[in-house]
Design brief:
With 133 residues, this protein is α/β, with parallel strands linked by helices. 47% of the residues lie in helices and 20% in strands. It has a single domain, classed as 3-Layer(aba) Sandwich (Rossmann fold).
Length: 133
């Protein structure tokens, strides 16, 4: 069974492009806003390997999603990687304050995106394995 990546973006083309990059290694779950992402995480609890999150979305944007995500017990088990055109200093700072250390600016270089996402997953796997008794 393939592990899953949750791609959260209001632009279906952006979701499809990211899904295509990882479809051979991961099952891709898509959400068009933060609220759909919270619902998907609740259903897929423990089965999501990473979250690729846009910031600018209707209904619940990426910042609102991160606030809700941080209230959940499973927030330390899933890396969040921001993939967004909101690439200004304030947005990056706000993401860091909300616990996100990985940021890919749109338009992104495919190789850089793949490297960043795989690094985030490895880092979290290593962190979680060190926390287990």
């Amino acid at each position: 069974m393939l592990k899953r990546i949750l791609v959260v973006d209001d632009n279906s083309t952006c979701r499809d492009i990211l899904a295509e990059l990882f479809e051979e290694k991961y099952e891709i779950i898509q959400a068009s806003n933060g609220l759909e992402a919270i619902n998907a995480l609740s259903i897929q609890l423990g089965k999501i390997e990473a979250i690729l999150l846009d910031i600018v979305m209707p209904t619940m944007d990426g910042f609102e999603f991160l606030k809700e995500f941080n209230k959940k017990a499973w927030n330390h088990k899933v890396p969040v990687i921001i993939v967004s055109s909101a690439d200004d200093k304030e947005s990056r700072q706000r993401c860091h304050e909300l616990g996100v250390n990985y940021f890919i600016a749109k338009p992104y270089d495919v190789n850089e995106a793949i490297t960043t996402i795989e690094k985030a997953i490895r880092d979290f796997d290593l962190l979680n394995s060190n926390l287990m008794p």
